[in-house]
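Exam revision sheet. Question 4 asks you to relate a sequence to its structure. Input first:
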Amino acid sequence: MSRIDWVISSCRLLATIGDEFDRTRPFANLTIGTGIHLEPKTVALLLVLARGGADVVSTGNLNSTQPEAVEYLGARGIRVIGGPTTDPDEHDGFLREVLEARPDIILDNGGDLFARWLENPYPSLRGRTEETTSGRALLAPLRERLARPILVIIDSPIKQFAENEHAVGQSVLESFIRITNRSTNGKHVTVFGYGACGRGVARSFAAARARVSVVEVDPVLRLKACLDGFAVPDRDEAIAAADVIVTVTGAPKVISAADASLLRDGVIVLTGGHLPWEIDVAGLREGHDAIAATDGIETIVLADGRRAHVLTGGHMVNLAGPRPLGNSVESMDIGFALQARCLEAIAAGSVAPEACVVPVPRAVDEAVAAAFVALS
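Answer key, structure tokens:
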């Protein structure tokens, strides 16, 4: 059994949906275009969509496409465009090739496909789903131009607690330990962002006996972090004290070249965010010596000899670097069940165009929650 086979067999909720889709064929004669991390859990989702009759055309995200996932999908009739890349221009070409297939429905991750659809829109697009906070932020100001149903999976309460709070925290911690082989006990860890993902990261490192501080620009979330028991120092103080810095904000240049003077010698910097822009790796490298270390660790030697270790080139740590496993199977089984049901609703035309950049319908949340509990 391959690792992909193991993951597919572990996605019990998706399996039941796939059995249903074999009968109902909700995507018959429709093309679904996807731009999403191509790894084993995604393979399980895309195969379920194909069982529903969809012609699936897919590409990956920057630095997270796993070759074995591409091979597995291709062997089962799923058209995958491109392969692993860290080159934004090459990635742009892959996304545009997906859109050349004129998909009827788009499954997006970060708004990549839809941003390009807006450059050359075609009328047959029925709607789309969006996985991420980054994608929602991109699309929300464009509602008047879009005039199509767009369901934001990240805004489902199930997605928030099942994947973001529980699974992201676990997988970021696991990836830090696996890549660095360092302990967390007693280390000062600074977490940037206290949204659902940030809360999960902070709690997981605290449970692993780290001393955790939180930097959060939203005063309400900063208060929540304080009441949850975390230190909430000023930004510069939090950076200067950190042995480990984790960014989980969705914002660009959370750690930039301007912060180099604050970094402790030997600090480890990583991100759990979707886009590879939270850590300004190029800015940190500029004017300093970068040592390409093995297995996802890059050491940047600053002018005074201090060292900063950046994990996975500033890409999402749990889906880049050596043996990337991503979030737990169970959490993604739930999240991708939400995806499948939302895509089904868009295909059926049961979501009005006014439902543009809105959360998952409550009925879908309730159905997925009840189904998962019934299988537990």
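Marking note for examiners. The chain has two domains: 3-158+327-375, 165-319.
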